[in-house]
Design brief:
- This protein is an alpha/beta fold and 433 residues long.
- The protein has three domains: 146 residues, Nitrogenase molybdenum iron protein domain (Rossmann fold, 3-Layer(aba) Sandwich); 190 residues, 3-Layer(aba) Sandwich (Rossmann fold), CATH 3.40.50.1980; 40 residues, no CATH class.
- Helix content is 47%, strand content 16%.
- A six-stranded parallel β-sheet has the order 1-11-10-9-12-13, with helices on both faces.
- Helix 9 links the parallel strand 9 and strand 10.
- The termini are far apart.
- Bound molecules: nicotinamide-adenine-dinucleotide, L-histidinol and zinc ion (ZN).
- The site of nicotinamide-adenine-dinucleotide has 30 residues, from helix 2, helix 7 and helix 8.
Amino acid sequence: MNTIKFPPKQDWAQILKRPTQSYNDLEQSVKSIFKDIQSHGDKAIQKYTEMFDGVKISNSVVSSNEFEAASDLVSTGLKEAIKLAYNNIYKFHEAQKSNNLAKVETQPGVICWQAKKPIDSVGLYIPGGSAPLFSSILMLAIPAKIAGCKTITLATPPQKDGSIHPAILYTAHLCGIKTVVKVGGIQAIAGFTFGTDSIPKAYKIFGPGNQYVTVAKQVATTFDVAIDMPAGPSELLVMADETAKPSFVASDLLSQAEHGKDSQVILVSTDNSFIEAVKLEIEAQIEVLPRVEIAEAAISNSKFILVNSFNEAAELINNYAPEHFIVATKDNNFFIDHIHNAGSVFIGDFTPESAGDYASGTNHTLPTNAYAKQYSGVNLDAFMKTITYQEINQTGIKNIGVAVELMAEAEGLQAHKNAMSKRLEAIKESVKS
Ligand SMILES: NC(=O)c1ccc[n+]([C@@H]2O[C@H](COP(=O)([O-])OP(=O)(O)OC[C@H]3O[C@@H](n4cnc5c(N)ncnc54)[C@H](O)[C@@H]3O)[C@@H](O)[C@H]2O)c1
Ligand SMILES: N[C@H](CO)Cc1c[nH]c[nH+]1
Ligand SMILES: [Zn+2]
């Protein structure tokens, strides 16, 4: 756990490199699995489920009996916790309904407006390789339902005995999801991409996952499918100074380190003794974690960076573009103003990142691997398309007709011009008669 002093810019890419395999590393193997599933559907999916999840499954669709049995296996306390989270996530996403869709009369007689329509068929991927992330169902199914998506299919990897973790089935049922398939990884994303006998084709695929899932989603976009964003191995950057509490910061860093060996956590600070205090706390706290081995591997990918000023910190953080950004300093507003590349921001000593992972209301499906530079996390709009409308009357044609004719002619597109000229002539004729 060495501390790096604010490095020169030319070293940032190397120092801040994510420990995951890249698109190029996995592209060929992912594409060959896609090809097989495109040709052989469920049969090929079964083969890859056996290969990667070590279980043979002949019918991957979860039955109503399985849904019912799962509910009895979830404790009342956990059900109540999931309902609390459900309500907060519902409240936050419902508030995202946009009412800024007024009709605009751009010129007299020319009316333009927009309306949002749900995406008909969506595929939701719920990770289940190393932990059953039932919280991700709330993050995806709630906005999909609010948006009004008709076909919502959930895919998640089976456990070794071929079952799905009861909390996943309970949460799916709570969210009103009827179709759950026991398929994970690349094979699930390929199933959504092409559609099979048991998996409806999705127009857009959502959800986090490991590096295989993330690259598979990127490959899916080379077919006719959209994705939310690349949401791969979890990452967290904490900016803290001497006013923060080392034990809190260490617990936050470990909370994301325990996700996977390819997770990455970073501490940036203006205070070297604070960094040392956090390191001691990490050593003490990591020992007793059940996932100590995973967390240790992730911590070994992680960085402690000493900067001279908040300005240096802001420049470095915007360059790294973390999935999650916690700020605990004497001037958090400086960072709220200056950080423009981050998936989700957590402010102050009492806003742990786990709050957003589960229950505060914000969405935890967020861009990783510096994609926060160009992508947003999942929100209500991600499940909708915006259609534009226009209606023009004869006054409107008179107002914009000649401009359209001139522009069409200048582009050399005579048929475009004709479509307008015919209307203008008809208006002239009707005035004459
Ligand atoms: N960015 C986000 O918003 C976000 C949110 C939640 C979780 N996450 C991340 O999601 C990830 C979940 O990963 P996970 O592994 O636990 O579950 P997962 O469901 O994403 O992946 C498990 C699947 O990977 C496939 N797989 C495993 N090894 C393979 C191999 N060698 N070749 C091909 N396929 C293989 C298997 O089919 C398996 O079912 C973690 O990295 C976590 O950090 C990210
Ligand atoms: N931190 C993850 C997003 O990177 C989300 C999650 C789910 N469960 C726990 N955490
Ligand atoms: Zn998490």
